[in-house]
Design brief:
The protein has a two-stranded antiparallel sheet with strand order 1-2. With 454 residues, the chain is mainly alpha-helical. The chain is built from 17 helices and two strands. It is 74% helix and 3% strand. The longest helix has 44 residues.
Amino acid sequence: MIQQHDLNVTPPHPSFAEATKVWAKIGLLSFGGPAGQIALMHKELVEERRWISESRFLHALNFCMLLPGPEAQQLATYIGWLLHGTRGGIVAGTLFILPGFFVILGLSSAYALFQQTDWLAGLFFGLKAAVLAIVVEAVIRVGRRALKTRFSLLVAASAFAALFLFGLPFPLIVLAAGIAGYVATRLQPEDGVRAAAARQALADRPSVIDADFPDGAPSRRRAMRVFAFWLALWIVPFILLAAVFGTENAYATIGLFFSKMAVVTFGGAYAVLAYVAQQAVEAYHWLKPGEMLDGLALAETTPGPLVLVLTFVGFMAGFRASLGLDPLLSGLVGATLVTWVTFVPCFLWIFLGAPYVENLRNNRALSGALAAISAAVTGVILNLAVWFGLHVFFADVGKLVAGPLSMPLPTWWTFQWPAFFLALLAALMLFRFRAGIVATLAVCACAGWVIHGF
């Protein structure tokens, strides 16, 4: 850790071994979803060790929010790449995933085997209510970081309305926000740009990766090598599974669906949950109604990216597949496949795009576009909070469709008062008493078990 008397001196560049230890620590402690994980990385890497400056950290974060997949894991990969090249990015991104992956495998196995028992149903009743408070906290944390101007507030509100009221696709919203941010920045007076730059400069302290750190060197040859290597890794599981089970099998369907999701869905776990839940329940019948919320509650109890909830979906899909394997083994294969096709593309996006983004970080119009996308993602998370609130508080939620309007509509008399009070308890623990994520989940799970027993 950097001592206080060294704050005006650039710290030494960390060794690869030292960085590996820190990435392992972050991976083990990264509870609380993307908001908590980003805050943890900021504290460890920006405030305490000063391995990256505030402005470079935010620039990398805005780029990661633009990408499909979990922004926190991609941010770790990006910073690992800046520090130690490709091997640094691989280690940082992988250590961010592994602890949570192994934990979610164990929890998914227990869920698949024992979910019908009354005690487990009670635990998950409490966990669902706690998850709602956690998502609301994420809205507040991300909003504080991304919504600093009237324009960003307008972008966030527009994104929420487009999703909640009209059901517009997220990629369209991202594109519109990026274009709006680009145009607004180009039209901003030069005095305003200089003032913003001065404020940002004051926020930076001498860091290993700061304004003077050399940018990446993009080249077409390097980009082609990176694309070919990671694309090959992406499709390796399909070749192996086809050799064992043939080309027409349940794993191929699972892998193709989540490969498509890795490309077309944006905004991290909070943004993809509604889409995946709908497809997994209604189209593929991998999950039963309500199980996606159970999976999210499981993912909230583990370190690592919240998008590991998709590992749960893959496990349940494999567990219920008819391939002649033991159900638990089949679930393990499904979970591993989904995790692979979800995260391998994340490494591809970073290693392919980061050198170009680094070269463009002084382009104020591009920076404005990325900041607007961050604001739009805040609206997406708010939409998820409302979506979760409806499904937690009401036993039955339908849909209102009237012309272009397409929004959830609860059956008002199915309001669940116990869920409301559990969510209120979780909110008090998080906001009033500053309890941690794990403590809040544990208390609400126990309370749900008690309530469910009566």
